[in-house]
Write a structure and sequence with these properties.
single chain; mainly beta; 0% helix; 51% strand
Length: 125
């Protein structure tokens, strides 16, 4: 069982920055594949960035060069550093995790098992 808790969302103006955090707690010391997703209204949850258990990283084209995904040394906390934010980055951001699958970074929501409650990011123009 894995529990995830996001923090760090908020409201910023276009061009601003935010840093999201996701604290992961688990019963076993298993390796996880993890990712960040965002969702706007009833639209499908879209992948933003992900990192597999080996540290291989994937970014959505829309955030490349602006967002950075990282983990602490113990892999207990996942981060998403977001710079040069745009209004289209607005949405609910979710942290996701799944026991490692050894197939590289996972980019679609249905590949993940565990989800946080989400943290809202609002970027105004």
């Amino acid at each position: 069982q894995v529990q995830l808790q996001e923090s760090g969302g908020g409201s910023v103006q276009s061009g601003g920055s935010l840093r999201l955090s996701c604290a992961a707690s688990r019963n076993r010391s298993s390796e996880l594949d993890m990712g960040w997703f965002r969702q706007v209204s009833s639209k499908e949850r879209e992948g933003v960035a992900s990192i597999d258990s080996d540290g291989v990283i994937w970014y959505a084209d829309s955030v490349k060069g602006r967002f950075t995904i990282s983990q602490d040394g113990a892999k207990n906390t996942l981060y998403l550093e977001m710079n040069s934010l745009k209004p289209e980055d607005t949405g609910m951001y979710y942290c996701a995790a799944v026991p490692e699958k050894w197939i590289g970074p996972l980019i679609t929501w249905w590949e993940y098992t565990y989800w946080g409650q989400g943290t809202q990011v609002t970027v105004s123009s």
